[in-house]
Amino acid sequence: MILNSFPYKLYLVISEADCMGRNFLQVAEQAILGGVDVIQLREKNSSTESFLQKAQKLIEITDKHSIPLIINDNVEVAEHVNAAGIHVGNTDAPPDFLRQRPLLHQKIIGYSIEYLSQLDNEQTLVSDYLGISPVFRTDTKTDTITEWGLEGIKTIRQLTEKPLVAIGHIHNGNAREVIDAGADCLAVVSAICSAQDPQKAAYQLKNEILK
Ligand code: TZP
Ligand code: MG
């Protein structure tokens, strides 16, 4: 039996800037109440100090609700707050290096897949889940390489048993087909962070996933 090291279904990727001027901690908590079961803090334009402060506040909320907090890219922040894990892409610190760090070796390591060739490398092997990045073109992140589409998910699904986290322009209207194509978990930014009611948005997405 393969133990699933990433059994989560609805993944909120959040930054303060994505929350339309609202308090990102409140948005995160509402999202958890709606059904988000894992959160990644992704602060692209913050200093490490500011990223750390935000992570320290957010982990109080994720701990209160017993859900994992994953840190995007920043090893120092992930280690300092004792986050549940770290998510990296092709140009960040590689998963095999992270896996060897004493403070991270038992943590969740997520790795974004932008090329099929990444599936064969050591980085994929040591990761707990793969981010399919992006599934669809999105204004939230424009420096992307591939748009995998539903066919891309199906192809990756046939090549690996790793948990697959789909990200990129996922919303209520396409969530079900992304799951049907083979994703295990959906990750969203704007579908929740830009929603008028983040709790309701999370609840509706979770319902689509569990349908
Ligand atoms: N990685 C690939 S696409 C993306 C990230 C962080 C942004 C997804 O944002 P949205 O608003 O859910 O399309
Ligand atoms: Mg990155």
TrEMBL record:
<feature type="binding site">
    <location>
        <position position="92"/>
    </location>
    <ligand>
        <name>Mg(2+)</name>
    </ligand>
</feature>
<keyword id="KW-0460">Magnesium</keyword>
<dbReference type="InterPro" id="IPR034291">
    <property type="entry name" value="TMP_synthase"/>
</dbReference>
<feature type="binding site">
    <location>
        <begin position="189"/>
        <end position="190"/>
    </location>
    <ligand>
        <name>2-[(2R,5Z)-2-carboxy-4-methylthiazol-5(2H)-ylidene]ethyl phosphate</name>
    </ligand>
</feature>
<dbReference type="InterPro" id="IPR036206">
    <property type="entry name" value="ThiamineP_synth_sf"/>
</dbReference>
<feature type="binding site">
    <location>
        <begin position="40"/>
        <end position="44"/>
    </location>
    <ligand>
        <name>4-amino-2-methyl-5-(diphosphooxymethyl)pyrimidine</name>
    </ligand>
</feature>
<dbReference type="InterPro" id="IPR022998">
    <property type="entry name" value="ThiamineP_synth_TenI"/>
</dbReference>
<protein>
    <recommendedName>
        <fullName>Thiamine-phosphate synthase</fullName>
        <ecNumber>2.5.1.3</ecNumber>
    </recommendedName>
</protein>
<keyword id="KW-0479">Metal-binding</keyword>
<feature type="binding site">
    <location>
        <position position="141"/>
    </location>
    <ligand>
        <name>4-amino-2-methyl-5-(diphosphooxymethyl)pyrimidine</name>
    </ligand>
</feature>
<dbReference type="GO" id="GO:0009229">
    <property type="term" value="P:thiamine diphosphate biosynthetic process"/>
</dbReference>
<comment type="function">
    <text>Condenses 4-methyl-5-(beta-hydroxyethyl)thiazole monophosphate (THZ-P) and 2-methyl-4-amino-5-hydroxymethyl pyrimidine pyrophosphate (HMP-PP) to form thiamine monophosphate (TMP).</text>
</comment>
<feature type="binding site">
    <location>
        <position position="73"/>
    </location>
    <ligand>
        <name>Mg(2+)</name>
    </ligand>
</feature>
<dbReference type="GO" id="GO:0000287">
    <property type="term" value="F:magnesium ion binding"/>
</dbReference>
<dbReference type="GO" id="GO:0004789">
    <property type="term" value="F:thiamine-phosphate diphosphorylase activity"/>
</dbReference>
<dbReference type="InterPro" id="IPR013785">
    <property type="entry name" value="Aldolase_TIM"/>
</dbReference>
<feature type="domain" description="Thiamine phosphate synthase/TenI">
    <location>
        <begin position="10"/>
        <end position="192"/>
    </location>
</feature>
<dbReference type="GO" id="GO:0005737">
    <property type="term" value="C:cytoplasm"/>
</dbReference>
<comment type="pathway">
    <text>Cofactor biosynthesis; thiamine diphosphate biosynthesis; thiamine phosphate from 4-amino-2-methyl-5-diphosphomethylpyrimidine and 4-methyl-5-(2-phosphoethyl)-thiazole: step 1/1.</text>
</comment>
<feature type="binding site">
    <location>
        <begin position="138"/>
        <end position="140"/>
    </location>
    <ligand>
        <name>2-[(2R,5Z)-2-carboxy-4-methylthiazol-5(2H)-ylidene]ethyl phosphate</name>
    </ligand>
</feature>
<dbReference type="GO" id="GO:0009228">
    <property type="term" value="P:thiamine biosynthetic process"/>
</dbReference>
<keyword id="KW-0784">Thiamine biosynthesis</keyword>
<comment type="similarity">
    <text>Belongs to the thiamine-phosphate synthase family.</text>
</comment>
<feature type="binding site">
    <location>
        <position position="72"/>
    </location>
    <ligand>
        <name>4-amino-2-methyl-5-(diphosphooxymethyl)pyrimidine</name>
    </ligand>
</feature>
<feature type="binding site">
    <location>
        <position position="112"/>
    </location>
    <ligand>
        <name>4-amino-2-methyl-5-(diphosphooxymethyl)pyrimidine</name>
    </ligand>
</feature>
<keyword id="KW-0808">Transferase</keyword>
<dbReference type="Pfam" id="PF02581">
    <property type="entry name" value="TMP-TENI"/>
</dbReference>
